[in-house]
Each structure stands twice: as C-alpha cells, then as structure tokens.
Amino acid sequence: MATTESRQAILDRLTSRVVDANPLPTIDPSRLTTFEDPIAKFAEMLAFVGGEAHQVDRIEEVREILSKNPVFADATRIASVVPAAIQGNVDASQVDDPHALSSLDWVIARGEFMVAENGAIWVDGSTLPHRVMLFIPQYLAIVVSRNEIVSNMHEAYQRIGTPKPGFGVFVSGPSKTADIEQSLVLGAHGCRKLQVFLVP
Amino acid sequence: MGALPIIDHPDASREFVTNKARSHWHDEALWFVRSKRDKQAHSVPEWEYLREQASEVKTHTIANLDRYLVEFEKNATAMGATVHWASDAADHNRIVHQILKDHGTLRIVKSKSMLTEECGLNHYLEDNGIEVVDTDLGERIVQLRHETPSHIVLPAIHIKKEEVGETFHTHLGTDKGASDPQYLTEAARGHLRGKFLSGEIGITGVNFGIADTGGIVVCTNEGNADLGVSLPRVHIACMGIEKLLPRHQDLAIFTRLLARSATGQPITSYTSHFHGPRDANSELHIVLVDNGRSKLRESETFRHALHCIRCGACMNTCPVYRRSGGHSYRTTVPGPIGSVLSPARDSKAHKSLPYACSLCGSCTDVCPVKIPLHHQLLAWRKELVGQDRMPKSKTVPMKAASYLFQHPKLFALAGKAGRTALRWLPHFATHNRLNKWTIARELPLPPKESFRDWYRKNRG
Ligand code: SF4
C-alpha cells in the first residue's frame, strides 16, 4: 500500500471508533518534589550514575583539575566549545564531515542547565558544530553554570520551552551498559567518563 | 488455511524450567533489576501521582489519536522531517527499504527498536542484500548468535557471560575462554566503532513522539542511537502510532517513569530530542506504524494495553517470566504485556499465553502507566473460552471445578478427598506429563483439617 493510502486507512480506522476520554490533565506543581540544596542533590545523583561533578570558583580551574587527570594529560586531540576553560587543538567548526572527528580524545561541551533529581544536564545541539561531538570522543567534559539548575524534569521542560528545529539531549553520566550479565560497564559506545564542571 | 504454529507456553518453556540452575540464575538476575526499580520508585514521593498522570495522558491520547497523529505530522513536516505511514509490518519494511534504495544504501546501523523486531525488518533487509548491524550491545550479542531478544529492555538477559565470551571469540576474535564483562564490552566497543563509521544510514526506534512540536525522543544508555544517526546524513525513525504524547511538557512525566521502571536508573544516560533533520543536507524520515494498534484501540477491554511504554518492569517482576525465560513466549514482546498483546494479534497461535500467569498482580502494581495487566490476562481467558480456544488441559478441570463450586456438599467431600490424596498419592500420580504444573515444583502438604471444619469447631 502506498503511504497516502495507509495514512487514510489508519485515520479512517481511528475515526470510525469514537472513544470518550477526559481532557488532558495538568500537573499540580505543589505535588512535585523540589530540593533545598539542588546542587548537592545534583552532585549526588551524578555520582550515582557514574559521572563526576567538580565545583570551581574560577573557570581556569577546569584546566588545573583536568591536567591532573592522566588520561587528559595524554590526550592528543581535544575539541572545545568552551575556550575560556580549555583551548582545544581540533577546530571542529572547520570540519565538514563528522566522520573526521572519530579520533577525538576529549570534548569540552557547554551545558545549559542541570536537573537535580537525576543528575542530567541539558545540552543544546546548536552549541556544537557537530552533534556527534557529544558521543564520539573517548572522554567528555561539560561546563555549566552553577546558577542554572532546576529540581525536576517538569521544571526542566518548562525551562526548555518550545523547541526550535534541531537537537537537544539530557546527558546523565557516561555511556554505559549492563548487557553482559547485568555487570555495569562504563564506556559502551560513547564517552568512558563524564566530568561536569560547575562554574560561577 | 495452512496450520498456524500454535505455541504452547508450557511446552516452549520446558527446557528452560527444567534446567534448574539456569532458571534460578535468570530469576535472580531479574529480581535484582526489580529491586533496583523499587528503590527508585520509592525515592520519588509523587510516584503514584506520576503514574496516574501518565495513565490519564495516555488514555486521552489514545482516544484522540487521529487528531494527534495529524498534528504530529504537520509539525514534524514543518521541522523538516518526512513522515511516512505504514498500515502493517509489510508496509513498514517496504517503506524503509525504499528509502535505503533511494540512497543506494547497503549498510545500516540500527539501535534498539522492538517495533522493527515486531515487523521482522532485519530479515527483510538482509534478504534484500543489506547489511544490518544492531548496535545495542545486548542486541548485537543476540544478533551474532542468530537468536532473538528475550526481553525488551535487556535483550541478552538469558545469556551467560561465558557464552558471550564464546560468541565474541568466534566473531570478534577475543581470547578464548574470556568472560570478563569489562573486557568483552571493550571488544564490542572497538568492533562497533568500525560499524558506526561505515554505516550509511542510521535507524532508530522512538520512545516518544510529541504532537505539539513534531519532535521525537530516543532514550539509550549506551549512546548507540546517537552515534548511529549523528554520522550518516539519513536517519530513519520507526515509531508505533501509540508512542505519541500530546505536549512537549508531558515528556517530564514519562522520562521520570521510564528508566526508573526499566532498570532502576533515575533517567537514561542519553535522552535525545530530535526536531527535524541535522542540517540542510540531511534527512529525517519518521515511519508511523499501525500494525494492529488501531484495531486494539477498538477493544474496550484491551485498549489500555496501548499505554505501554515498553519499560519491561512487568517482565522483571513476573514470577512466570523470571523462571521460564523470554523465549518461551515465542513472541517479540514477552511477559505479561506480551501475553496481552499477542493474542490480540492472533488468538489461536497465542492462546496459551494468558495462562502463563499466576494472577499474582505484581505486573499491575509496577506498571508505570497503570495498565491493569492481570485483569486483562484474566479477561483474555474468558474471551478465549468464548472462542473455544482454551486448551483442553484447562477446560476439563475448569468445568469440573465449576460443577464442584455449585454443589457445596460435593465440594466439602472433594476437599477431604484432596487433602487425603495429597498425603497419600504416589509421586508418579501427580508428576506426569498430564500435569504441567508439577514439572518443576512439589505439591504442598495439605492441612489435616479443612477451614470449614475448623470454623465449625471454633467459631460455629
Ligand atoms: S505493560 Fe507497563 S510495566 Fe509492562 S512494559 Fe509496558 S509500561 Fe512497562
């Protein structure tokens, strides 16, 4: 069947049977858990999902902390969209084909805001020259302002508002799998570790 | 009409159930996941409130599905996506294949999608000369072993790490005898990297479609969906029409429930929102698939099954699933929800599934979208009796029981006979091939006295 015929057939089947239902419910915000110290909750949840949060007072500290990390010290290809924190040596905006980014060791990305209840960070795809930069490097660091935090997912979606064409993702912890006998292994296909820097 | 394969769950599960060690190991593995789910559910004080909201949103959406699908189509198109409609599995496979042909594609990378599994997409494409690589680790393991997933969230839950080691040794050249999950995962990571880089088109499922924005959301822990569709220029997303949510903000409810119910995580590692294709040179195709869903919607009794967000919690908690393994259901979606959905598709072939249930109700308790699963399984049993599709091993004893219940004197006598018999019957009389219940269990020792006798003596 052609897709237009299928479309009609499906819609016909759906309209031919009228089903009564209540209108859409609205969430009552007073029923939702919020946190007095959302930053502390965020750090706790991020650790729970295998990520690491670092509180820094000056953005320069990002480099100081990462430099102590042997995997970072050995990294040869680094792309960054937060040059104030780390100056990368691969300019992804000059790359046409995302396949060329396959050998990236580190990416420093920018987060828009954090969610306390689950340790997730919202990353807006438009802040990256290629969205694959979030998934292809061996290691990922996200820099996000400490003031940009919400308690739960309801506040999070409110904050995102109406999406524009493009891509956005909640990142919570490094890539992981437990597909082999339920043993948790960090670093399935995406980043092996996730560092989150909470800057002023 | 050719003979349909009528699959009897007790027969299909025999091998698994009688392998005591394996059945026990499987049971424990799933119970572990179930416990993690409990912890997460308890950590959210408004959990029950969220379940109610989720159920109400779904009930409303399914009732107004035509309207929301059209709205979704309009908005997705405005975002630059191409929306296709597929009446059934064959339609779906043809549409996907046509897109591949249009791009001269011979190699695709695919992230987990129960829908493409339901439609048999892999085989269809392979028969048409296309290399299909499942990129979810569990699915890849299953694919290399020429098996099917035995669970919708944990596709390889039935396979031991030593067996994964064997498979990887054969296909990926890992060390013989290796069984360390860390080492094996690392090998798969390297192997799949190459596949990601050479994939010409990425195919994903869809966890949620959003009517008021035209976006789709895909949730993974491994990041394989994202890697798979961020390298090639074409992304095909296959979506069951019931996956729709009316409003962007509704995602808050469902992203809070999904991962907590599925694996006991507060949210999946990646919750990706796609609104239109990547850029002006890329394409996003969304295939909306019915394949029986609109028919299920017509049923007053089973309509709620369309709420399912495929979290797998009902499987993890089901005492029958945990002990008999997912393959014993011989369906794409096993466990309690599978036993509700499959007879709707083909009541003859799957008539034994509503009986693969102890009616303990645990599935109903954990279901994040409040599908009354065990009520539906009971309803199926009634329906199947009406259709004369109940297995003989059930109808004969049921008729006898019904007669007994209607004759109290006889019932009392039968009870006494039963209590005596349970004490004195030799093992071979209870454990034989006519009684599938006793394949892997012993019968209880009965009380000496019936409740009726006790009541008369003490309270009468
Ligand atoms: S029926 Fe409910 S518990 Fe089972 S998979 Fe679907 S949503 Fe999850």
TrEMBL record, chain A:
Descriptive protein name: Lactate utilization protein C
Source organism per UniProt: Rubripirellula lacrimiformis
UniProt xrefs under Pfam families: LUD_dom
Gene: lutC
Coiled-coil blocks: none
Superkingdom in the source lineage: Bacteria
Domain LUD, chain residue ranges per copy: 101-199
TrEMBL record, chain B:
An annotated Gene Ontology molecular function: 4 iron, 4 sulfur cluster binding
InterPro entries: 4Fe4S_Fe-S-bd, 4Fe4S_Fe_S_CS, FTHF_cligase-like_sf, Helical_ferredxn, LUD_dom, LutB/LldF, LutB_C, NagB/RpiA_transferase-like
GO biological process, one term: lactate metabolic process
Membrane-spanning parts: none
4Fe-4S ferredoxin-type domain ranges (all copies): 298-328, 348-377
UniProt keyword list: 4Fe-4S, Electron transport, Iron, Iron-sulfur, Metal-binding, Repeat, Transport
Origin superkingdom: Bacteria
Record SUPFAM superfamilies: 4Fe-4S ferredoxins, NagB/RpiA/CoA transferase-like
Protein name: Lactate utilization protein B
